[in-house]
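Appendix B. One record, verbatim.
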Amino acid sequence: MIVNGSGTISGIESVNWAEGSNFDDTIHMGRYSRGFAQTYGMDGNDTLIGGYYTGSMYGGDGNDVIDATASIYGYDLFGGAGDDVIYDHSNGRHVRRCW
């Protein structure tokens, strides 16, 4: 399931790229992320939840929550501007701060 702003997108077979909006988005990659999908929250207070094969995750501006604990790869995790909370499976090895 992907919730973008106030809408919900479901019934997805595969996602290689997910991008939020300038609003508060929830993007849950779950089992749909294939090929190390990139996830971008953009502006707003976003919640990004990575799946098993999720690649890099970018929070963007706003107070974001990035949860990459389910990803076995969890490439770089970027909080962006704002007060972000990042959950990483690798003891912070992949966490990057950019503003």
